[in-house]
Amino acid sequence: MKKILLFLVALLFIQSCSVKENIYDTQAQKYVGGYNRGALRIGKTEKNSISPDSIKAWKSNGIFLRFDYNSNLLSSIEVRSTTRYKPRKNVRVGDDISSVEKVYGKPLSKVIDYGEANSIHWIWKGLFYQDISFVVDSTETNVVAFCVGNPFRAC
Fold first, then answer.
1. Is 41 exposed, middle or buried (0-12, 13-18, 19+ CB in 10 A)?
2. pTM for this model (two decimals)
3. Could you give the dihedral angle defined by the CA atoms of residues 114, 105, 89 and 22, in that order, rounded to the nearest 10 degrees?
4. What share of the chain is helix, strand, coil (3-state, %, to 5)?
5. Which residues lie below 8 Å from residue 54, measured CB to CB, with a gap of 6+?
6. H-helix or E-strand containing 134?
7. What DSSP designation does 73 have?
8. pLDDT of 20-45, one tens digit each?
């Protein structure tokens, strides 16, 4: 009986460790999207199910949607230049990178993005979080954006 109970506790612990990220709107007090909450579902929402006007409205609120080229499914949601939205662990755009490291730990890797603003992507992956990256400024001190989804395919 003790072995079965121990097994069930271990199973629940492992399942809780694989929590996937979602994005919460602090103004509307609801989830807007992510892996399993909100209207915008990564890997499930099709591009043609969102009107161009809705995509523009999201963009004007600091949310950029990226879709997979082959499947046209939502692959990532990037939040830029707004403190209105936050991921599961309450990190926001504008926060110091040390606050990100306190709640998410050290990054698995850094990827330099020479695309838009010569920004640096910090890619966090690990046991307690999944598919989130933070974009920091050139001084590597402040978060200028965060992305939920596959950062190598979309952000």
1. middle
2. 0.78
3. 50
4. 25, 35, 45
5. none
6. strand 132-136
7. B
8. 789 999 999 999 999 888 999 999 99
